[in-house]
Amino acid sequence: MSDSFDVLWLSASSVLQRFDRPLVQYLSRHLRIAHWEYHQSQDEGSSIDQAVELLYEFLEDCDRSVHLAGHGMGGAVALSFARRYPQKVRSLTLLAVASQPANTWHAHYYFQRQLFSISREQILASSARSLFGNQPPHTAKKLIAALDKDLEQSPTQHSLFKLVYLPKGGVSMPMMICGSKTDPIVNSPALHDWMNWFKPEDKLWECSQGYHFFHYFYPQEVGEQILSFWERHDLHLVEASALSFSASKS
């Protein structure tokens, strides 16, 4: 199965994975990318461990390691998987994932609910502005609805009663950390803290703007950086990228 793709993009939210599409589409012009999405029914409990085990079932029959990538909670799942099954992962690319991987936008939402006596709707509206910047009213309304649904579907174990933390630290395979200088959720200090566990082959890169979903607003700029990282650690990808470029020129 692994011969059918070079990179596996992870998504932990069916409602937010639309914001991954511009970047995935850009990358797929150069490499073979598969998309894996975590689905949770209303009767299932939230669990990153469950997401990791489902991902292992998907990759169990792969005959070679793959490049894993993900944004936000999808990146947190990728990180947990890479630590548990390092033999399955060739490199790890994390977008908007803090050095404390559980510090997602969900954690910020629940922290505000604990701290302030304001409604769920008011905090979701504030979260939408933080994650996407100021948007027209009709767009903001759709974003609020998407965030509201993501709170129910995400494998995060945060709640009004307790914020959960995940182990900090690095991984054994090459790792790239991407973020945005205007992201209030995973800010520059949270990104640069990763360097405490960096190996010589690891890379940190920040987009100059774009908020939390910078890869949606600047897919080509982000994609060029990621492609460069992957190609540096995989000769097979260099050859595949060159073939793709030749085909597009002919």
UniProtKB/TrEMBL annotation:
It comes from Nostoc paludosum FACHB-159. The keyword Hydrolase applies. This is Alpha/beta fold hydrolase. Keywords: Hydrolase. Pfam families: Abhydrolase_1. Residues 64-135 form the AB hydrolase-1 domain. One of its GO terms (molecular function) is hydrolase activity. It comes from the Bacteria. The keyword Hydrolase applies.
